Amino acid sequence: MSRSDDQLGPLVDLGRERPQVPARARNMSPIVPRGSISGSALVAVVAIMTFLASITTGTVLLVSASAAEWQSEVASEITVQVRPAPGRDLDRDAAAVADAVRAQSGIVDVRQFTREESAKLLEPWLGSGLSLEDLPVPRVLVARVQPGSAVDLEALRRRVTQAAPTASVDDHRAWIERMRSMTGATVVAGLAILVLVIVATIISVSFATRGAMAANRPIVEVLHFVGAGDRFIANRFLRHFLRLGLEGGVIGGGIAMLVFGFSESIANWFSGTPVGDQFAALLGTFSLRPSGYLMLAVQAVVIAAITAWASRRTLLATLDDIE
Amino acid sequence: MVRFENVGLRYGLGPEILRDLSFLIPAHSFQFLTGPSGAGKTSLLKLLFLSLRPTRGLVNLFGHDVSLLSKDQIADLRKRIGIVLQDFRLLDHMTTYENVSLPFRVIGRDESSYRKEVIDLLKWVGLGERMDALPPILSGGEKQRAAIARAVISRPQLLLADEPTGNVDPTLGRRLLRLFIELNRSGTAVVIATHDMTLMDQYDARRLVLHQGRLHIYE
User: Fold this and answer.
1) Which of A178, B57, B113, B170 suits A139 as a labelling partner, its CA being 20 to 30 A distant?
2) First and final C-alpha spacing in chain A
3) Dihedral (C-alpha) A44, A46, A49, A55: value to the nearest 10 degrees?
């Protein structure tokens, strides 16, 4: 270690040449100049990656929330179909089935679709002005289940079949299962995309770091000459990469949040169009909850942290090669 | 302070350029390292500065066998060594003042604690008016003096200088030699690699002469 002034006195004696004015504090230049690291490309890469990751996460959150809503809505309903049969009065059968369903415990309300409502349901396939008198169209009853109670479906089926042999009960279980697997697949696909985005970010950052280190090799060598350890040097570079990562994360995450913030207005522009209606049916209002925005913000910070980590890893590996 | 025993050095699969070097550099000593161009002076300085490892033999620096040192330990030892290289190695984005104070920044000293010392030294080496200049606009001699100032500012225990007066006029050369002598008197061991006979004749010191890869010592 170098020796202190107390032991040795001044290194040089300037005599009359000693400066007469007190030395002013100086603003020291950064050891690693900011401009020497080609930051704009890296900021753009991190911003794009964060944007893609945020859009993926946001969409997964929307789909999951909408699917949970559908499931709870559908699970609280039971549909009963009464099919016409020769020699039976369909209206009377429907009324008997409605009474039977109403009598079942756990059912709070039964609504019977009128002929006109049934005709409206079939309108997309058979066109308007349909006369149901000419067609063997089944009658539909929708029963609402008391929330939190389990309906004995076997008992309900027996009761309904006794009232009308041609009646059948559908609790939408198969459809809910399909919904659940579709939502699960969406979440898995989203996570896979997130993993790919993160891997791509790490690779891009590693390349950018290697490039920056190659460009700054003379600085690293001089720092080695004056006794700087690898940790000291890595930390000087790391500050730049952390700043670049945060810049990219804020830009990408911010734009993604704006997209979700304005998505309701955007969805309104498309309402009435077939695409807009399909999206509305699938994703509801297309608006993210506050917890979703929080998750996007956390994700942007995580991507910035990953950028810094990948950069540090590459820095230390590269410093090993520079004497 | 420094002990070499049967040290050999070759680059890759090439011929051995330093052969069977055995010598001591005691603390507080002053020596010139000389020899014809291409004799291996710079390579020997690099061995002393730990930026090259010997291909054979033992190098012991400050009591440490250098073959057993980790990178962190090498960095710590380098803080006790000052080096002036022929190509100066100044950082172009930093002023002369900042280049010279770099060793202090690396050890984390506050700028106010070394400001006066750096300015005094810059004045001494004739760079008082060039403190805020960037290296690209300095002349060769000015760069050399800045590099010397950087090497001596932290008062290293061992100073290695490769042709330190190669780019300066004789008057300034004598002044720089005085600086090295002062530094040596305050306890630094000095090794100056040079083939400037005039410089060597100005100060009676030990001479290490490299010739065809072998070292001859004249006390």
Assistant:
1) A178
2) 21
3) -90
- What whole-number distance in Å separates Cα of residue B149 and Cα of residue B104? 12
Q: Which tokens is B107 given?
A: 């050890």
d(CA A127, CA A139): 18
Is there a contact between B146 and B88 (Cβ–Cβ < 8 Å)?
Answer: yes
Q: Where are the domains of chain A?
A: 36-71+177-321, 84-165
- The interaxial angle of helices A290-321 and A230-270, nearest 10 deg, is 150
The A77-82 sheet, strands edge to edge: A107-112, A139-145, A77-82, A167-170
The two counts, helices (H) then strands (E), for chain B are 8, 10
From the list B102, B124, B154, which residue is nearest A2 (CB)?
B154
pLDDT category at A279 given cuts 50, 70, 90 is low
User: If residue A169 lies in a helix (H) or strand (E), which one and from where to where?
Assistant: strand A167-170
Q: What is the model's pLDDT at position B91?
A: 93
Q: State percent of chain B over pLDDT 90.
A: 59
Question: How crowded is residue A181: how many other Cβ atoms within 10 Å of its Cβ?
Answer: 10
Mean pLDDT to the nearest integer, A120-129: 75
Rounded-to-integer distance, Cα A272 and Cα A11, Å: 84
Q: Which residues in chain B (162-181) have CB-CB distances under 8 A to chain A? A: 179
Alpha carbon distance A86, A101 (integer Å): 23
For chain A, give the mean pLDDT: 79
Cβ contacts of B23 within 8 Å, gap of 6 or more: B3, B4, B208, B215, B217
Q: Does B73 touch chain A (CB under 8 A)?
A: no
pLDDT tens digits, residue range A27-63? 678 888 776 666 677 788 889 989 998 998 888 888 8
Please give the Cα distance from A193 to B210 (Å, whole number).
Answer: 64
Q: Are A211 and A311 in contact (CB under 8 A)?
A: no
Q: Could you tell me the pTM of the whole model? A: 0.68
Q: What distance in Å separates the CA atoms of residue A297 and residue A300, rounded to the nearest whole number?
A: 5
Say whether pLDDT at B166 is over 90: no
Q: Does A11 contact B117 at a Cβ distance shorter than 8 Å?
A: yes
Please, which residues bridge with residue A141 across strands? A80, A112
B2-218 CATH pick, 3.40.50.300, 3.20.20.450, 3.40.50.150, 3.30.565.40 = 3.40.50.300
Please say if the pLDDT value at position A20 is more than 50. Answer: no
Which member of B71, B81, B112 has the closest CB to residue A25?
Answer: B112
Distances (CA, A) of A148 to A151, A210, A250, B34: 10, 59, 43, 96
Q: What is the mean pLDDT of residues A182-189?
A: 86
Question: Binning pLDDT at 50, 70 and 90, where does residue B60 land?
Answer: very high
Q: What is the mean pLDDT of residues B44-71?
A: 92
Contacts of B123 in chain A (CB under 8 A): 12, 14, 17-19
